[in-house]
Structures are given as C-alpha cells and as structure tokens.
Amino acid sequence: MLIESERILVRNWNIEKDTEAVFRMYSHPDVVRFLGRECLKNHQEAQEYIQRLINHNEGFGGKYGSWAITERSNETLIGNILLKPIPGKDRVLTEHIEIGWHLARPMWGQGYATEAAQTMVEHAFETLALKRLIAVTELENKASIAVMKRLGMSYLGPCRDFYDGLLLEVFEMYSYQSVPL
Question: How far is residue 58's CA from residue 43's CA, in Å, rounded to a whole number?
C-alpha cells in the first residue's frame, strides 16, 4: 500500500528500514501508555513487532492492517496508522472496522495524526467502499479524542465491547459524514 497526502506517505512496513524508528517510538512510555502493552526493550523486539504487523497485513490480503506513516519530505518513519476489524471482549475479531494511530513522541501536536487519519478515512470510504468506521480510546487520551472530533466522528459513549472488555470511549463515522480537512 502507498497513500500520499500533503506531508505524509502511508506505506508497508520494512524491517530493515523501520527497526530503529519503531524501537524509538514504542520504547517511549508516553507512546505506549494507552496501547495496553509495555515499552519495547530492544531492537529484536522491534523487529518481531514489525514482523507481526507484516504477517497481520498479509492475513488480511493487504485490505486491512497497520502501515507505516512517514514524512513525505524525507521518508522518516513518524508513526503507525491502522484500519482493521476490532477485537471483541474475547479477542475474536468483530465486524466493526477500527481506525487508529500511534505517533512518535516528537511528532505530537503537529497535525500528523489528523492528516494520517484523514488520509486513511478517505481510503476506507473511497477505495474500500466501507460505510462505517469506529475509533476507540481511553477517556484520558485527550489528544486522540481531539483527532476523532476533528475527523467529524460522533461520540457514542463508553463501552466494554472491545479489547477484552476494557472501558473505552467509542466514536463512529459513516461514509456520508466524511469531509476533507
């Protein structure tokens, strides 16, 4: 997959190119705080994580998965954007398609999450012809909630239907609501 916007490229993962940046991103406690996992401890864990993402994408035939976000100007990896069936209480995938994002800590507050998410929303609705997307996060994750609102997503409220019953704030968006930023 390769999707472009004004400042970013969304592309497939590459273990050789991405290991260092993935390690730096996911070894930062602020980045993993709301992801339900521990910081990466070394480059081997980063490589294993990237390989899981690649395998996950291949399992969905490239339609759904997780992709690298890079700066268009220099191809520096700055984050991760995902579009995938969301796991339910028992970790079995549901029919709901989730959009999500993770950014390297130095890139926060610069509009990259919104730009990447808007790019993926357009791909989901225009290319994949999806009708609805959801996004979830914890109440304390104000930055992600702000991105969801900027995308035009509607707040549904708290729910325990996803990710092993964790209490999450749920937002949704239908294709007819999509508007360019």
Answer: 23
Q: Between the CA of residue 81 and those of 46, 90, 112, 157, 159, what are the distances in Å?
A: 17, 23, 11, 23, 23
| Mean local confidence (pLDDT), 144-172 | 94
Question: Which one, of 43, 38, 10, 37, lies nearest residue 24 by Cα?
Answer: 43
Which residues lie across from 132 on neighbouring strands?
174
CA distance 121 to 179: 9
Domain that holds residue 76: 2-177
56: left (phi over 0), alpha (psi -120 to 50) or beta: alpha
Tally of structural domains, the chain: 1
Provide the β-strand partners of residue 105.
Answer: none
Please state the pTM of the whole predicted model.
0.91
